[in-house]
Design goal:
The model is unreliable at about 140-145 (pLDDT under 50). The two termini are about 25 Å apart. It is globular and about 50 Å long. It contains 6 helices and no strands. The chain is mainly α.
């Protein structure tokens, strides 16, 4: 689903953030600490909420790492938009988020990350051979023509 190097850099940065912050270990610790089977639905809801916060943190960290490396932090948003479109095609409709989801909706994440990307200061590393700038300009031109 990755369309260019900017998106790939953001996705890799996202995963690096998960590893650096030890998100998997933290989730396992929470799962072990909630031992009462009677409250299983509450435990699942707590884990899902915690996981959504981890995803938001990893998105932000991924954008920061990508920008520091000279990649466009908007790549996180464009990747998530592609992911949301794929979900829609596979399901035949937009997926409705549920209380027990471990990830925020792709649409919500794309929107939040686009806003953050516009506010971030970054500079393209001129040694990178990125195709995303050309692709984005071409897409914007096409969108203006099709209106």
């Amino acid at each position: 689903l990755v369309n260019d190097e900017d998106e790939l850099a953001n996705v890799i940065g996202h995963e690096i953030t998960h590893a650096a912050r030890r998100h998997a270990a933290a989730q396992q610790q929470i799962a072990r600490s909630s031992s009462a089977l009677l409250f299983q639905p509450l435990r699942v809801a707590n884990l899902a909420s915690y996981a959504r916060d981890m995803e938001r943190t990893a998105d932000k960290g991924g954008q920061q790492l990508a920008a520091a490396a000279g990649y466009d932090p908007m790549g996180m948003s464009t990747f998530l938009s592609s992911l949301e479109q794929r979900e829609r095609v596979l399901l035949g409709h937009a997926r409705v988020p549920t209380f027990f989801d471990t990830h925020p909706s792709s649409r919500e994440r794309a929107s939040v990350n686009a806003i953050r990307a516009r506010e971030m200061r970054w500079r393209r590393d001129s040694s990178l051979n990125c195709t995303s700038d050309f692709r984005r300009r071409r897409t914007q031109k096409c969108a203006r023509t099709c209106r």
